[in-house]
Amino acid sequence: MKKILHPATSRGTANFGWLKAKYSFSFGNYFNPDRLQFGKLRVLNDDQVESAMGFGKHPHKNMEIVTIPQSGALKHQDSMGNSGIVKSGDIQVMSAGTGVEHSEVNASTTEPVTLFQIWVIPDKEDVSPRYDQKKIAPLLKDNSFSTIVKPKSEAQENELWIHQQAFFSIGTFSEKTETSYSLYNKSHCVYVFVIDGTILVDNETLNKRDAIGIWDTDTISITANGNSRVLLIETPMN
User: Fewest CB atoms within 10 A around its CB: which of 36, 45, 75, 102?
Assistant: First the structure.
């Protein structure tokens, strides 16, 4: 097993007043040549958007974009004709493909919204843009990991998917749990990101917003303390 640690304090930062962000990888004005991406995971932004503010209409192309609100709600609109509210407990998936424009604005006029904005490099370019959204809660099992996004080739009816051999899993742990994650493909890598709480991975203690990238293994053993939540993103290594 090989690994690379990304402590929460090592992330890039930005404060635009209306937006406070932490960048796991190079993004915008934050550039770190050692933190360009991990496998096909290109962006993992930890954002807080103030009330009634947000990301105005802007374009994307050839990127798989996954948004997971942590608190509050976003008002979504796009050039495909989709509009609606994406709130805490939901997950949004968008394939930019040949090109799409969208906006994501805080739906509240009084409270901030917090979210993870995640970009994955696709395995197929210039596909038709698409949008999907689901509730996460019914997909999750307590004290274990549940896969919530799969590659198109692996997804069953009504499952969320993207154009990449990537798997997103979330673990929710109400009590101390010793568990493991078996990679779907042993040539893949896994980015382990602690949303809340504390976990132990390969003798490394990770706290809230710490992360570790792991490869050259087919199974990852994890001990999660109670009240912990963990995001796993498995992608091809190269």
Answer: 36
